[in-house]
Design a protein that fits this description.
Chain B: This is Phosphate-binding protein. Chain B: Residues 1-22 form the signal peptide. Chain B: Residues 34-268 form the PBP domain. Chain B: The complex is composed of two ATP-binding proteins (PstB), two transmembrane proteins (PstC and PstA) and a solute-binding protein (PstS). The complex is a heterodimer of chains A (295) and B (299). By secondary structure, chain A is mostly helical. Chain A has a single domain (68-289), classed as MetI-like (MetI-like fold). Chain A is built from twelve helices and two strands; from the N terminus they run ααββαααααααααα. In chain A, α3 runs parallel beside α6 (149-174). Chain B starts with a helix and ends with a strand. The chains are: A mainly alpha (295), B alpha/beta (299). Chain A binds chain B through residues 1-2, 5, 8, 12, 55, 57-58, 131-132, 135-136, 139, 145-147, 225-226, 229-233, 241, 243, 250-263, and chain B through 2, 5-6, 9, 50, 76-81, 83-84, 87-88, 103-106, 161, 166-170, 187-192, 196, 199-200, 203-204.
Amino acid sequence: MKINSDMLGKVLTMGAALLAIVSTIVIIIFISTKGLSTFINTGISVKEFLFSTTWFPDRAVEDGGPQVGVLAFLLGSIIVSLLAVLVSAPLSIACAVFIQEIAPFWGQRLLQPAIEILAGIPSVVYGYIGLSLLAPFIRNNIGGLGFSVLAGFLVLSVMILPTIVSVSTDTLRALPQEWKEASYALGSTRWQAIRLVLLPAARSGLVTGIVLGLARAFGEALAVQMVIGNTRKIPSSILDPVITLTSAITMDMGNTPMGSLWNNALWTMGLLLLLISCCFILIVRFVARRGGITS
Amino acid sequence: MHNKLKGLVVVILCLGVVLALAGCGGGGDSSAKPAAESKLSGNITAVGSTAMQPLAEQAATQFMAKNPDVKIVVQGGGSGTGLTQAAQGAAQIGNSDIFAEEKSGIDASQLVDHQICVVGMAAVVNPSLNIDNLTRQQLVDIFTGKTTNWKDVGGSDQKIVLVNRPKASGTRATFKKYALGGAEEAAGIEEDASGTVRKIVKDTPGAIGYLALSYLDGSVKAVSIDGVAPSKENITTGKYPVWAYMHSYTKGQPDTAVEAFLSYLMTDDVQKTIVPQLGYIPETDMKITRDSAGNIKNK
């Protein structure tokens, strides 16, 4: 009986693990073949794709088309997610320190669940709040149309907050208690212990949290799409509308026939996103390995 | 304890299998085998245009009530998806708000067109603007970015904010072809969903966009073109040019169940009740026809 249930468990977990590996590989192969066909079948150069801002995938050959330059989308994604991380990272780390070191009791009892709830709110709700409250607020009080880089990164910075906070609190919690005690014994104040001992010791974990937040910001589509205005131009100010890779993909995907150049170009954009998030994962692995907390 | 756990695992596995089977059933095979002479059966999947989705859903519900052995699954996904799925034979019906001939990458010759109804489209502006009518040239100048202030077309001194649909959208294609004469629109705000376009035009001072008439609810103002209002009357008689057919495409001639559903869509049950209720114009009311090249003929 015991052996049987052991076997069953083994088979189930092995099966699940294999399924995860196989599906990852299949997805990568599928996106790659689809995405690379833009370059292979239609002879559009990688350089043109990455560094041109003209996006006319429907233009006939005799009018000089089709042109699929994604620079505006790529820059939009980078600008919006970097700004979101810039806002969110200090806030999140401060939150994590507060939860773990300053007010451990009600921080862990109240604040951490409250922040985790933020992760559970569906992104369409964030988008709708941004569309209904944030964009009009920006339009009436700051200027511009409201649909802007500003609205986009503000919404995103709230959305990535739980990711960074939870990774950071976990890291801080994993630090050996003796380090804090030792620094108190040397006469440091609580602030000095946090700033000079705990935060530097937790550095790699904090960076991991930030990179994961950045990756999440990069991949988020729906909420961002609702508040950034989706204008296919490189923004010149924080109040200009902008477009990201993800929103460009979701807006056109359903209306382009499979196998057309236009559709393939969208897959290439998907491939680009995949490569970027692979980079983020590699960075996380690298950071986690270097100077990790070994207790 | 172990037995309990095992029981749970078995239950979960069974659930999984049942769900998987149910999922397969929906996508399913279309080879309808009429059990009795008058009884229809089979599975129909209708995929495509989100503009047509509410119509297809309501009609399908009524049709299934009358023919309990027919199962119809209606999905959105966009006109491009509808046309592709129909052409590949993955769905029995592909809904589209543009002609298959107008979409590059689709082999239109193997698809059979069933025109269900007509939807008009109008330029809409923020209700606080005192604009009710624009000439065709003014409209083109506004959407190509030549005119950037409402005072140049007889309005107040207010910057124009363009709200477009994505380039692949069927509504955009129709509006560009019949309202703008094919002129390329300037970059503006782009929104995927008609509902979002309506909300932005309603909330943003100086905004102009375009919507299917089925989305008009009084919160935004529809604009006449050259003095012709986007009314049902003007569309059926061919005076107002910006409209599109709602097509249901099948690959080759449809089988019995699909054919029965498509002809049900043309009965008074649908054409006289659901179609006008949702803000579309019944195909049967049209006094003109238009082909994929845009040629208009009297019916």
